[in-house]
Design a protein that fits this description.
Layout (H helix, E strand, L loop, with lengths): L12 H4 L4 H8 L3 E4 L2 H12 L11 H10 L14 E3 L1 H7 L6 E5 L6 E11 L3 H8 L8 H8 L4 E9 L15 H11 L4 E4 L7 H14 L2 E4 L13 H12 L7 E3 L11 H13 L4 E4 L20 H8 L1 H4 L2 E4 L3 E4 L4 E4 L14 H10 L10 H10 L8 E6 L6 H15 L4 E5 H7 L8 H20 L3 E5 L5 H11 L4 E7 L3 H7 L4 H6 L21 E3 L6 H14 L7
Parallel strand pairs: 1-3, 6-7, 6-9, 7-8, 9-10, 13-15, 13-16, 14-15, 16-17
Antiparallel strand pairs: 2-5, 3-4, 4-5, 11-12
Organism: Entomortierella parvispora
Subunit structure: Homohexamer. Dimer of trimers.
Pfam family, one: ATP-sulfurylase
Length: 574
Protein backbone atom coordinates (compact mmCIF):
# COMPACT_ATOMS: atom_id res chain seq x y z
CA UNK A 1 0.00 0.00 0.00
CA UNK A 2 1.24 3.51 -0.87
CA UNK A 3 2.13 6.00 1.84
CA UNK A 4 -0.90 7.92 3.19
CA UNK A 5 -1.32 11.52 1.97
CA UNK A 6 -0.25 14.38 4.22
CA UNK A 7 -3.18 15.09 6.51
CA UNK A 8 -4.67 11.65 5.84
CA UNK A 9 -6.84 12.48 2.79
CA UNK A 10 -5.77 13.15 -0.80
CA UNK A 11 -7.45 16.45 -1.72
CA UNK A 12 -8.18 15.65 -5.36
CA UNK A 13 -10.49 18.55 -6.21
CA UNK A 14 -10.85 17.53 -9.85
CA UNK A 15 -12.35 14.20 -8.81
CA UNK A 16 -14.35 15.78 -5.99
CA UNK A 17 -15.96 18.38 -8.25
CA UNK A 18 -16.48 16.20 -11.32
CA UNK A 19 -20.24 15.75 -10.55
CA UNK A 20 -20.77 19.53 -10.86
CA UNK A 21 -18.35 20.06 -13.78
CA UNK A 22 -21.03 21.10 -16.29
CA UNK A 23 -22.58 23.49 -13.79
CA UNK A 24 -19.21 25.12 -13.05
CA UNK A 25 -18.34 25.36 -16.73
CA UNK A 26 -21.62 27.16 -17.39
CA UNK A 27 -21.10 29.48 -14.41
CA UNK A 28 -17.61 30.66 -15.39
CA UNK A 29 -18.96 32.44 -18.46
CA UNK A 30 -20.86 34.76 -16.10
CA UNK A 31 -17.93 35.47 -13.74
CA UNK A 32 -15.10 37.95 -13.72
CA UNK A 33 -11.79 36.26 -14.44
CA UNK A 34 -8.25 36.35 -13.12
CA UNK A 35 -5.69 35.21 -15.68
CA UNK A 36 -3.03 33.35 -13.76
CA UNK A 37 0.72 33.83 -13.91
CA UNK A 38 2.92 30.85 -14.76
CA UNK A 39 3.73 30.33 -11.07
CA UNK A 40 0.08 30.58 -10.03
CA UNK A 41 -0.85 28.04 -12.71
CA UNK A 42 1.76 25.57 -11.41
CA UNK A 43 0.50 26.08 -7.85
CA UNK A 44 -3.15 25.71 -8.85
CA UNK A 45 -2.49 22.51 -10.80
CA UNK A 46 -0.92 20.90 -7.73
CA UNK A 47 -3.66 22.19 -5.42
CA UNK A 48 -6.52 20.74 -7.44
CA UNK A 49 -4.72 17.45 -8.16
CA UNK A 50 -3.98 16.81 -4.49
CA UNK A 51 -0.24 17.30 -4.84
CA UNK A 52 -0.41 20.03 -2.18
CA UNK A 53 -2.68 18.09 0.20
CA UNK A 54 -4.00 19.10 2.68
CA UNK A 55 -4.36 22.46 0.89
CA UNK A 56 -7.63 22.98 -0.92
CA UNK A 57 -6.99 26.55 -2.05
CA UNK A 58 -4.60 29.47 -1.96
CA UNK A 59 -3.90 30.51 1.61
CA UNK A 60 -6.13 32.94 3.47
CA UNK A 61 -4.50 35.48 5.78
CA UNK A 62 -4.75 33.35 8.90
CA UNK A 63 -3.12 30.32 7.24
CA UNK A 64 -0.56 32.51 5.47
CA UNK A 65 0.67 34.15 8.67
CA UNK A 66 0.82 30.80 10.44
CA UNK A 67 2.84 29.19 7.64
CA UNK A 68 5.27 32.11 7.43
CA UNK A 69 5.80 32.29 11.18
CA UNK A 70 5.42 28.67 12.33
CA UNK A 71 5.66 26.33 9.28
CA UNK A 72 2.10 25.24 10.03
CA UNK A 73 -1.39 25.91 8.80
CA UNK A 74 -3.71 27.60 11.28
CA UNK A 75 -5.10 24.18 12.30
CA UNK A 76 -1.59 23.05 13.26
CA UNK A 77 -0.86 20.84 10.23
CA UNK A 78 2.77 20.96 9.13
CA UNK A 79 3.19 23.04 5.96
CA UNK A 80 6.31 25.03 5.10
CA UNK A 81 5.62 27.08 1.96
CA UNK A 82 3.14 29.95 1.54
CA UNK A 83 1.02 29.31 -1.57
CA UNK A 84 -0.57 32.59 -2.58
CA UNK A 85 -2.77 34.10 -5.26
CA UNK A 86 -1.39 37.62 -5.68
CA UNK A 87 -3.36 40.46 -7.26
CA UNK A 88 -2.75 44.16 -7.76
CA UNK A 89 -4.82 47.13 -6.63
CA UNK A 90 -5.67 47.59 -10.30
CA UNK A 91 -7.01 44.02 -10.42
CA UNK A 92 -9.08 44.62 -7.29
CA UNK A 93 -10.57 47.82 -8.72
CA UNK A 94 -11.11 46.49 -12.23
CA UNK A 95 -12.78 43.27 -11.10
CA UNK A 96 -14.40 44.78 -7.97
CA UNK A 97 -12.90 41.94 -5.93
CA UNK A 98 -14.40 41.48 -2.47
CA UNK A 99 -15.15 38.69 0.05
CA UNK A 100 -17.85 36.20 -1.00
CA UNK A 101 -17.34 37.05 -4.67
CA UNK A 102 -16.80 34.15 -7.08
CA UNK A 103 -14.17 34.55 -9.79
CA UNK A 104 -12.86 32.27 -12.52
CA UNK A 105 -9.15 31.43 -12.57
CA UNK A 106 -7.91 31.02 -16.13
CA UNK A 107 -4.93 29.38 -17.80
CA UNK A 108 -2.65 32.11 -19.28
CA UNK A 109 -1.75 29.85 -22.23
CA UNK A 110 -5.22 29.28 -23.67
CA UNK A 111 -7.64 31.22 -21.44
CA UNK A 112 -9.44 28.04 -20.37
CA UNK A 113 -11.07 28.10 -16.91
CA UNK A 114 -9.23 25.93 -14.38
CA UNK A 115 -11.15 26.68 -11.19
CA UNK A 116 -13.67 28.93 -9.49
CA UNK A 117 -12.50 30.79 -6.39
CA UNK A 118 -14.91 32.01 -3.73
CA UNK A 119 -13.04 34.85 -2.03
CA UNK A 120 -12.69 34.75 1.75
CA UNK A 121 -10.29 37.63 2.26
CA UNK A 122 -7.97 40.07 0.48
CA UNK A 123 -4.92 41.12 2.46
CA UNK A 124 -1.61 42.93 2.08
CA UNK A 125 1.36 40.75 3.09
CA UNK A 126 4.53 41.95 4.76
CA UNK A 127 6.94 40.97 1.98
CA UNK A 128 10.08 41.76 3.95
CA UNK A 129 8.89 39.51 6.76
CA UNK A 130 7.99 36.78 4.28
CA UNK A 131 11.42 37.01 2.66
CA UNK A 132 13.29 36.82 5.96
CA UNK A 133 11.27 33.99 7.51
CA UNK A 134 10.64 31.83 4.43
CA UNK A 135 13.86 32.39 2.49
CA UNK A 136 16.12 33.33 5.37
CA UNK A 137 17.10 36.76 4.06
CA UNK A 138 15.66 39.79 2.30
CA UNK A 139 18.40 39.68 -0.32
CA UNK A 140 17.58 40.23 -4.00
CA UNK A 141 20.39 37.83 -4.93
CA UNK A 142 17.93 35.09 -3.94
CA UNK A 143 15.76 34.44 -7.05
CA UNK A 144 12.58 33.95 -4.99
CA UNK A 145 13.17 37.14 -2.98
CA UNK A 146 13.75 39.03 -6.22
CA UNK A 147 10.54 37.53 -7.62
CA UNK A 148 8.67 38.40 -4.41
CA UNK A 149 9.64 42.06 -4.55
CA UNK A 150 9.67 42.63 -8.30
CA UNK A 151 6.96 40.32 -9.71
CA UNK A 152 4.52 39.38 -6.94
CA UNK A 153 1.67 41.88 -6.69
CA UNK A 154 0.81 43.79 -3.54
CA UNK A 155 -2.25 41.85 -2.30
CA UNK A 156 -3.00 38.17 -1.65
CA UNK A 157 -6.43 36.57 -2.06
CA UNK A 158 -7.59 33.63 0.05
CA UNK A 159 -10.71 31.55 -0.43
CA UNK A 160 -12.16 28.19 -1.38
CA UNK A 161 -11.70 26.47 -4.73
CA UNK A 162 -13.85 24.35 -6.99
CA UNK A 163 -12.01 22.64 -9.84
CA UNK A 164 -13.34 23.01 -13.37
CA UNK A 165 -10.60 21.05 -15.15
CA UNK A 166 -6.90 20.30 -14.92
CA UNK A 167 -4.58 22.35 -17.13
CA UNK A 168 -4.04 20.79 -20.54
CA UNK A 169 -0.48 19.84 -21.53
CA UNK A 170 0.79 18.89 -24.96
CA UNK A 171 4.29 17.75 -24.04
CA UNK A 172 5.24 14.44 -22.42
CA UNK A 173 1.63 13.69 -21.54
CA UNK A 174 2.42 10.04 -20.77
CA UNK A 175 4.70 11.11 -17.92
CA UNK A 176 2.38 13.72 -16.38
CA UNK A 177 0.68 11.83 -13.57
CA UNK A 178 -1.52 13.20 -10.81
CA UNK A 179 -0.98 11.84 -7.29
CA UNK A 180 -4.00 9.55 -7.73
CA UNK A 181 -2.63 8.22 -11.03
CA UNK A 182 0.87 7.51 -9.71
CA UNK A 183 -0.62 5.86 -6.61
CA UNK A 184 -2.70 3.60 -8.89
CA UNK A 185 0.46 2.78 -10.84
CA UNK A 186 2.28 1.81 -7.65
CA UNK A 187 -0.66 -0.37 -6.62
CA UNK A 188 -0.82 -2.08 -10.00
CA UNK A 189 2.88 -3.00 -9.82
CA UNK A 190 2.73 -3.77 -6.11
CA UNK A 191 5.32 -1.10 -5.31
CA UNK A 192 4.93 -0.64 -1.55
CA UNK A 193 8.27 1.05 -0.92
CA UNK A 194 9.27 3.83 -3.31
CA UNK A 195 12.27 6.16 -3.14
CA UNK A 196 11.52 9.52 -4.81
CA UNK A 197 14.36 11.38 -6.50
CA UNK A 198 13.80 15.03 -7.34
CA UNK A 199 15.96 16.81 -9.87
CA UNK A 200 15.95 19.95 -11.96
CA UNK A 201 19.13 18.99 -13.84
CA UNK A 202 20.07 16.33 -16.39
CA UNK A 203 21.02 12.97 -14.87
CA UNK A 204 24.35 11.26 -15.41
CA UNK A 205 25.94 7.99 -14.29
CA UNK A 206 26.52 9.18 -10.72
CA UNK A 207 22.81 9.96 -10.30
CA UNK A 208 21.87 6.54 -11.57
CA UNK A 209 24.33 4.91 -9.19
CA UNK A 210 23.19 6.78 -6.09
CA UNK A 211 19.46 6.15 -6.78
CA UNK A 212 20.08 2.46 -7.39
CA UNK A 213 22.09 2.23 -4.17
CA UNK A 214 19.33 4.05 -2.26
CA UNK A 215 16.67 1.69 -3.63
CA UNK A 216 18.64 -1.47 -2.93
CA UNK A 217 19.49 -0.43 0.62
CA UNK A 218 15.78 0.19 1.33
CA UNK A 219 14.47 -2.76 -0.71
CA UNK A 220 12.47 -0.23 -2.72
CA UNK A 221 11.74 0.98 -6.22
CA UNK A 222 12.73 4.38 -7.64
CA UNK A 223 10.50 7.21 -8.83
CA UNK A 224 12.43 9.72 -10.92
CA UNK A 225 10.29 12.80 -10.25
CA UNK A 226 11.86 15.83 -11.98
CA UNK A 227 10.45 19.33 -11.77
CA UNK A 228 9.10 20.61 -15.10
CA UNK A 229 7.32 23.73 -13.86
CA UNK A 230 9.50 26.70 -12.90
CA UNK A 231 13.04 26.08 -11.71
CA UNK A 232 16.10 28.23 -11.10
CA UNK A 233 16.76 30.86 -13.80
CA UNK A 234 19.42 29.56 -16.15
CA UNK A 235 18.55 25.88 -15.72
CA UNK A 236 18.48 23.60 -18.76
CA UNK A 237 15.02 23.53 -20.35
CA UNK A 238 12.70 20.73 -19.35
CA UNK A 239 12.32 19.43 -22.93
CA UNK A 240 16.02 18.54 -23.03
CA UNK A 241 15.98 17.18 -19.50
CA UNK A 242 13.02 14.86 -20.08
CA UNK A 243 14.69 13.41 -23.17
CA UNK A 244 17.70 12.73 -20.94
CA UNK A 245 15.50 11.08 -18.29
CA UNK A 246 13.87 8.91 -20.96
CA UNK A 247 17.31 7.75 -22.04
CA UNK A 248 18.70 7.09 -18.57
CA UNK A 249 15.62 5.25 -17.27
CA UNK A 250 16.54 2.46 -19.70
CA UNK A 251 19.83 2.05 -17.81
CA UNK A 252 18.07 0.92 -14.63
CA UNK A 253 17.43 -2.75 -13.87
CA UNK A 254 14.15 -3.85 -15.45
CA UNK A 255 11.19 -2.99 -13.25
CA UNK A 256 13.18 -0.92 -10.75
CA UNK A 257 12.40 2.66 -11.82
CA UNK A 258 9.63 4.83 -13.24
CA UNK A 259 9.53 8.40 -14.55
CA UNK A 260 6.83 10.92 -13.60
CA UNK A 261 6.97 14.70 -14.10
CA UNK A 262 6.08 17.27 -11.45
CA UNK A 263 4.62 20.64 -12.56
CA UNK A 264 6.08 22.46 -9.56
CA UNK A 265 7.14 26.11 -9.37
CA UNK A 266 10.26 25.90 -7.23
CA UNK A 267 11.17 28.69 -4.82
CA UNK A 268 14.78 27.58 -4.16
CA UNK A 269 14.02 27.96 -0.45
CA UNK A 270 16.51 25.42 0.85
CA UNK A 271 15.37 23.84 4.15
CA UNK A 272 11.72 24.93 3.87
CA UNK A 273 11.64 23.78 0.28
CA UNK A 274 13.03 20.36 1.21
CA UNK A 275 10.27 19.93 3.77
CA UNK A 276 7.72 20.99 1.16
CA UNK A 277 9.17 18.58 -1.40
CA UNK A 278 8.97 15.71 1.09
CA UNK A 279 5.28 16.44 1.72
CA UNK A 280 4.58 16.54 -2.02
CA UNK A 281 6.27 13.15 -2.54
CA UNK A 282 4.33 11.72 0.39
CA UNK A 283 1.16 12.88 -1.36
CA UNK A 284 2.32 10.97 -4.44
CA UNK A 285 2.54 7.79 -2.40
CA UNK A 286 6.32 7.60 -1.91
CA UNK A 287 7.76 6.12 1.27
CA UNK A 288 11.28 7.56 0.96
CA UNK A 289 12.72 10.82 -0.39
CA UNK A 290 16.32 11.61 -1.30
CA UNK A 291 17.55 14.95 0.05
CA UNK A 292 20.93 16.07 -1.15
CA UNK A 293 23.60 18.47 -0.07
CA UNK A 294 22.26 22.06 -0.29
CA UNK A 295 18.87 20.77 -1.46
CA UNK A 296 17.01 23.46 -3.48
CA UNK A 297 19.72 26.00 -2.66
CA UNK A 298 19.84 29.18 -4.77
CA UNK A 299 23.61 29.66 -4.57
CA UNK A 300 25.43 32.69 -3.19
CA UNK A 301 23.97 35.76 -1.50
CA UNK A 302 25.04 39.31 -2.31
CA UNK A 303 27.97 38.94 0.10
CA UNK A 304 29.25 35.89 -1.79
CA UNK A 305 28.24 33.37 0.87
CA UNK A 306 25.82 30.43 0.52
CA UNK A 307 22.26 31.25 1.53
CA UNK A 308 21.98 27.96 3.41
CA UNK A 309 24.34 25.50 5.04
CA UNK A 310 25.06 22.32 3.07
CA UNK A 311 22.97 20.12 5.38
CA UNK A 312 20.36 22.60 6.67
CA UNK A 313 17.68 20.95 4.52
CA UNK A 314 18.39 17.50 5.93
CA UNK A 315 18.41 18.83 9.49
CA UNK A 316 15.01 20.55 9.14
CA UNK A 317 13.31 17.54 7.57
CA UNK A 318 14.81 15.29 10.24
CA UNK A 319 13.33 17.60 12.91
CA UNK A 320 9.81 16.91 11.63
CA UNK A 321 10.28 13.26 10.61
CA UNK A 322 7.64 11.95 13.03
CA UNK A 323 4.96 14.20 11.49
CA UNK A 324 6.10 13.69 7.92
CA UNK A 325 5.93 9.90 7.93
CA UNK A 326 8.27 9.71 4.95
CA UNK A 327 11.82 8.48 5.41
CA UNK A 328 14.57 10.82 4.28
CA UNK A 329 17.45 9.23 2.38
CA UNK A 330 20.54 11.45 2.65
CA UNK A 331 22.13 12.07 -0.72
CA UNK A 332 25.36 10.08 -0.83
CA UNK A 333 28.12 11.74 -2.83
CA UNK A 334 29.60 9.08 -5.11
CA UNK A 335 33.02 9.10 -6.73
CA UNK A 336 34.32 7.30 -9.82
CA UNK A 337 37.24 4.90 -9.41
CA UNK A 338 38.84 4.39 -12.86
CA UNK A 339 40.92 1.37 -11.83
CA UNK A 340 37.82 -0.65 -10.96
CA UNK A 341 35.42 1.21 -13.29
CA UNK A 342 32.82 1.84 -10.61
CA UNK A 343 31.18 4.53 -8.51
CA UNK A 344 31.40 4.21 -4.74
CA UNK A 345 30.32 6.49 -1.89
CA UNK A 346 32.99 9.10 -1.21
CA UNK A 347 33.43 7.91 2.36
CA UNK A 348 34.21 4.40 1.12
CA UNK A 349 37.03 5.35 -1.27
CA UNK A 350 40.17 3.35 -0.36
CA UNK A 351 43.11 5.40 0.82
CA UNK A 352 45.34 6.31 -2.11
CA UNK A 353 42.81 5.23 -4.74
CA UNK A 354 42.71 7.22 -7.96
CA UNK A 355 39.44 9.13 -8.42
CA UNK A 356 37.90 11.15 -11.25
CA UNK A 357 35.18 13.78 -11.31
CA UNK A 358 33.74 16.42 -13.61
CA UNK A 359 32.12 19.42 -11.97
CA UNK A 360 29.03 21.15 -13.31
CA UNK A 361 31.18 24.09 -14.38
CA UNK A 362 33.57 21.78 -16.24
CA UNK A 363 30.66 19.98 -17.92
CA UNK A 364 29.25 23.29 -19.16
CA UNK A 365 32.71 24.24 -20.46
CA UNK A 366 33.00 20.97 -22.38
CA UNK A 367 29.55 21.38 -23.88
CA UNK A 368 30.35 24.97 -24.82
CA UNK A 369 33.67 24.09 -26.42
CA UNK A 370 32.70 20.71 -27.87
CA UNK A 371 35.36 18.96 -25.75
CA UNK A 372 35.13 15.23 -25.02
CA UNK A 373 32.80 14.03 -22.25
CA UNK A 374 33.90 10.56 -21.14
CA UNK A 375 31.55 7.58 -20.82
CA UNK A 376 32.51 7.04 -17.19
CA UNK A 377 30.82 10.37 -16.43
CA UNK A 378 27.71 10.14 -18.61
CA UNK A 379 26.14 7.72 -21.05
CA UNK A 380 26.78 8.41 -24.77
CA UNK A 381 23.07 8.81 -25.52
CA UNK A 382 22.76 11.42 -22.75
CA UNK A 383 25.76 13.37 -24.03
CA UNK A 384 24.34 13.30 -27.57
CA UNK A 385 21.04 14.73 -26.34
CA UNK A 386 22.80 17.50 -24.42
CA UNK A 387 24.93 18.39 -27.43
CA UNK A 388 21.82 18.63 -29.62
CA UNK A 389 20.20 21.17 -27.33
CA UNK A 390 23.42 22.89 -26.24
CA UNK A 391 25.75 22.97 -29.23
CA UNK A 392 29.27 24.39 -28.89
CA UNK A 393 29.65 28.11 -29.30
CA UNK A 394 30.91 27.67 -32.83
CA UNK A 395 27.36 26.60 -33.70
CA UNK A 396 25.49 29.05 -31.47
CA UNK A 397 24.03 32.40 -32.43
CA UNK A 398 25.22 35.76 -31.15
CA UNK A 399 24.31 39.43 -31.28
CA UNK A 400 26.70 42.35 -31.66
CA UNK A 401 24.90 45.41 -30.27
CA UNK A 402 26.46 48.70 -31.44
CA UNK A 403 25.35 51.78 -29.52
CA UNK A 404 26.37 55.41 -29.94
CA UNK A 405 25.30 58.87 -31.05
CA UNK A 406 23.70 59.63 -34.38
CA UNK A 407 26.44 59.94 -37.05
CA UNK A 408 28.94 58.11 -34.86
CA UNK A 409 29.67 55.74 -37.77
CA UNK A 410 28.10 52.77 -35.98
CA UNK A 411 26.11 52.02 -39.16
CA UNK A 412 29.35 51.99 -41.18
CA UNK A 413 30.85 49.55 -38.70
CA UNK A 414 27.71 47.39 -38.76
CA UNK A 415 27.68 47.07 -42.55
CA UNK A 416 31.40 46.35 -42.72
CA UNK A 417 31.07 43.77 -39.95
CA UNK A 418 28.24 42.03 -41.79
CA UNK A 419 30.37 41.74 -44.93
CA UNK A 420 33.33 40.37 -42.95
CA UNK A 421 31.19 37.83 -41.10
CA UNK A 422 29.53 36.71 -44.31
CA UNK A 423 33.01 36.13 -45.73
CA UNK A 424 33.85 34.13 -42.59
CA UNK A 425 30.86 31.83 -43.27
CA UNK A 426 29.33 29.23 -40.98
CA UNK A 427 26.06 30.98 -40.10
CA UNK A 428 23.64 33.51 -41.55
CA UNK A 429 24.22 37.14 -40.53
CA UNK A 430 21.33 39.58 -40.07
CA UNK A 431 21.70 43.35 -39.93
CA UNK A 432 19.23 45.41 -37.86
CA UNK A 433 19.96 49.09 -38.37
CA UNK A 434 18.15 51.69 -36.29
CA UNK A 435 16.42 53.38 -39.22
CA UNK A 436 15.41 50.02 -40.74
CA UNK A 437 13.74 48.85 -37.53
CA UNK A 438 12.08 52.23 -37.07
CA UNK A 439 10.56 51.92 -40.53
CA UNK A 440 9.63 48.24 -40.44
CA UNK A 441 8.68 47.51 -36.82
CA UNK A 442 8.31 50.80 -34.94
CA UNK A 443 6.97 53.33 -37.40
CA UNK A 444 4.24 54.39 -34.96
CA UNK A 445 6.72 55.25 -32.22
CA UNK A 446 8.09 58.67 -31.41
CA UNK A 447 11.23 59.52 -29.46
CA UNK A 448 10.10 59.83 -25.86
CA UNK A 449 12.03 57.73 -23.38
CA UNK A 450 9.15 55.27 -23.14
CA UNK A 451 8.92 54.92 -26.92
CA UNK A 452 12.67 54.58 -27.31
CA UNK A 453 12.62 51.80 -24.71
CA UNK A 454 9.80 50.02 -26.55
CA UNK A 455 11.84 50.19 -29.75
CA UNK A 456 14.91 48.66 -28.08
CA UNK A 457 12.76 45.97 -26.47
CA UNK A 458 11.49 45.03 -29.92
CA UNK A 459 15.03 44.96 -31.26
CA UNK A 460 16.08 42.74 -28.37
CA UNK A 461 13.22 40.34 -29.04
CA UNK A 462 14.00 40.04 -32.76
CA UNK A 463 17.72 39.62 -32.05
CA UNK A 464 16.98 36.91 -29.48
CA UNK A 465 14.79 34.96 -31.90
CA UNK A 466 17.47 35.08 -34.59
CA UNK A 467 20.14 34.13 -32.08
CA UNK A 468 18.03 31.17 -30.93
CA UNK A 469 18.09 29.92 -34.52
CA UNK A 470 21.90 30.06 -34.56
CA UNK A 471 22.27 33.24 -36.61
CA UNK A 472 24.64 36.11 -36.07
CA UNK A 473 22.87 39.43 -35.54
CA UNK A 474 24.29 42.93 -35.82
CA UNK A 475 22.16 45.59 -34.14
CA UNK A 476 22.95 49.29 -34.51
CA UNK A 477 20.49 51.67 -32.82
CA UNK A 478 21.36 54.76 -30.80
CA UNK A 479 19.96 53.02 -27.67
CA UNK A 480 20.75 55.88 -25.28
CA UNK A 481 19.41 54.32 -22.06
CA UNK A 482 21.28 51.80 -19.92
CA UNK A 483 18.22 49.94 -18.63
CA UNK A 484 16.86 49.24 -22.11
CA UNK A 485 20.25 47.96 -23.26
CA UNK A 486 20.43 45.69 -20.23
CA UNK A 487 16.98 44.29 -20.99
CA UNK A 488 18.08 43.56 -24.56
CA UNK A 489 21.17 41.78 -23.20
CA UNK A 490 19.08 39.66 -20.84
CA UNK A 491 16.71 38.68 -23.66
CA UNK A 492 19.48 37.64 -26.05
CA UNK A 493 21.65 35.86 -23.46
CA UNK A 494 18.86 33.35 -22.85
CA UNK A 495 19.80 31.71 -26.14
CA UNK A 496 23.20 33.01 -27.27
CA UNK A 497 26.00 35.48 -26.90
CA UNK A 498 25.59 39.23 -26.52
CA UNK A 499 28.40 41.68 -27.19
CA UNK A 500 27.83 45.34 -26.45
CA UNK A 501 30.08 47.65 -28.45
CA UNK A 502 30.09 51.30 -27.41
CA UNK A 503 30.88 53.40 -30.45
CA UNK A 504 32.29 56.25 -28.35
CA UNK A 505 32.72 58.88 -31.05
CA UNK A 506 32.93 62.31 -29.36
CA UNK A 507 29.76 64.34 -29.83
CA UNK A 508 31.68 67.16 -31.53
CA UNK A 509 32.97 64.72 -34.14
CA UNK A 510 29.46 63.30 -34.69
CA UNK A 511 28.19 66.84 -35.30
CA UNK A 512 31.02 67.43 -37.80
CA UNK A 513 30.21 64.15 -39.61
CA UNK A 514 26.46 64.86 -39.75
CA UNK A 515 25.81 65.50 -43.44
CA UNK A 516 22.04 65.62 -42.92
CA UNK A 517 22.16 68.67 -40.66
CA UNK A 518 20.07 66.96 -37.97
CA UNK A 519 22.24 68.19 -35.11
CA UNK A 520 22.08 71.74 -36.46
CA UNK A 521 18.27 71.63 -36.48
CA UNK A 522 18.24 70.21 -32.97
CA UNK A 523 20.56 72.97 -31.74
CA UNK A 524 18.19 75.54 -33.23
CA UNK A 525 15.23 73.93 -31.45
CA UNK A 526 13.62 72.72 -34.64
CA UNK A 527 13.90 69.14 -33.32
CA UNK A 528 13.33 68.30 -29.67
CA UNK A 529 14.29 65.28 -27.63
CA UNK A 530 17.43 64.70 -29.70
CA UNK A 531 20.12 62.54 -28.12
CA UNK A 532 23.22 64.55 -27.23
CA UNK A 533 21.53 67.93 -27.55
CA UNK A 534 18.50 68.06 -25.24
CA UNK A 535 18.18 64.36 -24.40
CA UNK A 536 20.84 62.36 -22.52
CA UNK A 537 23.02 59.51 -23.70
CA UNK A 538 23.90 57.15 -20.86
CA UNK A 539 27.32 55.72 -21.65
CA UNK A 540 27.43 51.91 -21.22
CA UNK A 541 28.91 50.60 -17.98
CA UNK A 542 29.56 47.06 -19.15
CA UNK A 543 30.49 47.21 -22.83
CA UNK A 544 32.59 44.33 -24.14
CA UNK A 545 34.35 46.78 -26.45
CA UNK A 546 34.71 50.56 -26.57
CA UNK A 547 35.73 51.90 -29.99
CA UNK A 548 36.21 55.36 -31.46
CA UNK A 549 36.06 55.77 -35.26
CA UNK A 550 37.65 59.21 -34.91
CA UNK A 551 40.93 57.58 -33.82
CA UNK A 552 40.82 54.16 -35.52
CA UNK A 553 39.59 52.96 -38.89
CA UNK A 554 36.40 51.01 -39.46
CA UNK A 555 38.52 48.08 -40.64
CA UNK A 556 40.47 48.09 -37.38
CA UNK A 557 37.25 48.17 -35.35
CA UNK A 558 35.74 45.30 -37.32
CA UNK A 559 38.91 43.29 -36.79
CA UNK A 560 38.69 43.90 -33.02
CA UNK A 561 35.08 42.69 -32.94
CA UNK A 562 35.89 39.55 -34.93
CA UNK A 563 38.84 38.80 -32.67
CA UNK A 564 36.53 39.11 -29.65
CA UNK A 565 34.03 36.68 -31.19
CA UNK A 566 36.83 34.26 -32.06
CA UNK A 567 38.29 34.50 -28.57
CA UNK A 568 34.87 33.54 -27.16
CA UNK A 569 34.73 30.44 -29.39
CA UNK A 570 32.17 31.50 -32.01
CA UNK A 571 34.39 30.53 -34.96
CA UNK A 572 35.92 27.34 -33.56
CA UNK A 573 34.73 24.91 -36.25
CA UNK A 574 34.37 27.31 -39.16
Amino acid sequence: MSNAPHGGILKDLVARDQPIHDQLLQEVSTLESIVLTDRQLCDLELIISGGFSPLESFLNEKDYNSVVENLRLADGTLWSMPINLDVSQEDIDRLSLKPAQRVALRDPRNDSPIAVLTIQDIYRPDKVKEAKLVFGDDDLAHPAVKYLHQSVKEFYVGGTLQAVQAPVHYDYVAYRNTPAEIRAYFQKLNWTRVVAFQTRNPMHRAHRELTVRAARSRQANVLINPVVGLTKPGDIDHFTRVRVYEAIIRRYPTGMAALSLLPLAMRMAGPREALWHAIIRKNHGCSHFIIGRDHAGPGKNSAGKDFYGPYDAQYLVEKYKDELDIEVVPFQQVTYLPDSDEYVPSDEVPVGAKTLDISGTELRRRLRSGAHIPEWFSYPEVVALLRQSHPPRSKQGFAVFLTGYHASKKEHIARALQVSLNQQGGRSISLLLGETIRGKLSSELGFSKRERDININRLGFVAAELTKAGAGVIVAPIAPYEQARQQARQEVEKTGGFFLVHVATPLEQCIAWDRDGVYERAQKGQITGFTGIDDPYEAPKNAELVVDPSTESVAQIVRRIILLLDQQGYFGDV
